[in-house]
Amino acid sequence: MLFLVFQVGADRYTLEAARVSEVLAMVELRKIAGAPVGTAGEFDYRGEPVPVLDLCQLTLGRPSNLRLSTRILLLRHEAQPGVQKPLGLIAEHATELARKSLGEFNSVGDALIAPDPRGRLRLLQLDKLLTPELRDLLAVY
Fold first, then answer.
1. Euclidean distance between the first and final Cα of the chain, in Å?
2. In sequence order, which residues have a C-beta less than 8 Å from that of residue 1 and are 6 or more positions away?
3. Using an 8 Å Cβ cutoff, are 28 and 98 in contact?
4. 91 in Cβ contact with 59 (< 8 Å)
5. Which long-range contacts (C-beta less than 8 Å, at least 24 apart) are formed by 80-83?
6. What is the pLDDT of residues 34-61, one digit of tens each?
7. If we measure between CA atoms, which residue out of 5, 6, 132, 133 comes closest to residue 67?
8. Any idea what DSSP says for residue 64?
């Protein structure tokens, strides 16, 4: 399988490339009034509002560093059972791909980790990061 590799702070993460519709340059985001922690804002993509979550904010409690390699990963997310909606994830250093099999990932605590020549790769398990408040927010998009 092909995986997109990115960073959350100093840790290298990965996500199945097939889940990612596009990798976009950072755009200006509109704030969402009353949005839960981890929500960076929203933007319009092809006429549709897309909520954007900041992976660093969700995992490290600080916003992502805005660099040239910081990107918005646009993916389809099942906001409600059977309903796929676009979702943006801000990720740092989203510039590389890796080939791995799911069998290479081993459980280490609550994480799935695979060895890699440049260090460990942690599989992003988005559902584990979503609080009930974030799930409620995503359900209305």
1. 30
2. 16, 17, 18, 99, 100, 101, 102
3. no
4. no
5. 80/139
6. 999 999 999 999 999 999 999 999 999 9
7. 6
8. P
